[in-house]
Amino acid sequence: MRRRLTIILYVPSVLLLLVLGLAYAESTAGAQQQRVYVDRLADASYLVRTARQSLLSDDPSVVSADLNRYHHVYGVRAAVVDASGRDWAGTGLDATALAETEAALAGHRSEFRKSFLPWDVDQIVVAEPVYDGGDLLGAVVTVSDAERLARDIWLNWGMLIAGVVLVLALAVVVADRTARWVLGPVRAVDHAMTDVGRGDLAARIPSSAGPPELRQVVEHFNDMSDQVERLVRKQQQFVANASHELRNPLNALMLRVDALVESAADADREDAEFVRAEARRLANILDALLLLADDAAPHVETEVEVSEVIRGRVESWRQLTRGRPIRGPEPARDPARAVVGTTALESAFDAVMDNAVKYSPAGAPIEVSVHTDDGVVEVAVRDHGPGVPAQALGRMTERFWRGPQRTGVSGSGLGLSIASELLAPNGGELVLGLASGGGLEARIRLPRNGDGP
Questions:
Q1: Residue 101 burial class via C-beta count within 10 angstroms: exposed 0-12, middle 13-18, buried 19 and up
Q2: Where is pLDDT greater, at 82 or 185?
Q3: pLDDT classification of 452: cutoffs 50, 70, 90
Q4: Quick one: fold of 300-447?
Q5: Where does the record place the HAMP domain (predicted)?
Q6: Interatomic CA distance for residues 180 and 173, integer angstroms
Q7: 383 CB-near residues (< 8 Å, 6+ apart)
Q8: So what CATH class is 212-292?
Q9: Parts of the chain belonging to CATH 1.10.287.130
């Protein structure tokens, strides 16, 4: 971002300097040519007096000495022509001075011809008519080599280019420092947001220099962070209180269930054992949910046999949903071991099964399968319910999201979201898709090596 802002600040400066530099270069070249022209015009005006005397006395020698001395001292060729255009005296002229000479013999002073490029100027020709009263006697013509003029223009342009380069270098530094100053608060906000996203709710942005508008953004961000931290602290306090309040009755319930199991008749012992197992699993789920609410879902390092865990949960669901056909899972040909917490796997599977049972028509089968593929253990649960629109699949794991056609079904919209978050610490994921022939297929994908699918 700083680079883009630097370019945005730098490019207008470059364009402005180029425009001003070209205008100055043109002005400088024209001024130097004008100066030389005025000097030569003054010299020609001086020579006109001697040329007039020479033409009136019909003696070329009167002006020849001045013309030769002028050429010797200044290196400028000068000549006098009479009214007919014939060379009268001087160092001689060539065809380059013909146009100016004809203009002077017509009674007009030669005009200044300006050129922007120094190499387009070879010679500077000045022609001044010579009058005696109202009679045109001839003209004085000077021809100057423009090599020195071009050299002076190039020297001036070189100094101009060096100055422009220096200013451009300074402009880069100024643009970079300006961009750094402007974006300083933005970078601070970005770093603070990253820290907050990683769980550091105490991250704040120190007051720093920068535009007043961005300093206000920093202040608002700090105020927002204070409010978020207060709300999270309240949530954590609520979770701790809820844990304490739920733990006591749950422990009492488990004690009574244990006593019930010990005193149950043989015919009822299987159902009592089932109730005790569910109560213990409820305690484990409570621990997992409390950790999840505290953003501390557990990461495990041991492997579990996924097929055995899923078969146990399927049997429990068959007892809970008597009469509901639940197919599978088939015995695995190869060990389906994955790195995942047993409680997390059971809770995620139960959330998926609960979703399938809720939305499947009565009597419609629910199909469960477990298989391994390319280092991943996959548990698939397919129902034959109405499914969801394809564009809604990506939102089903969002908290509190419920489809528009689910208004008549009880639930909070948290099950699939919690399942997805319970699987994440060990690289697992919940993938939802539409099954062929209708219904929804939920796949729990678990890494076999703990690195994630």
A1: buried
A2: 82
A3: very low
A4: Heat Shock Protein 90 (3.30.565)
A5: 180-233
A6: 10
A7: 355, 356, 359, 360, 364, 366, 367, 435, 439, 440, 441
A8: mainly alpha
A9: 212-292
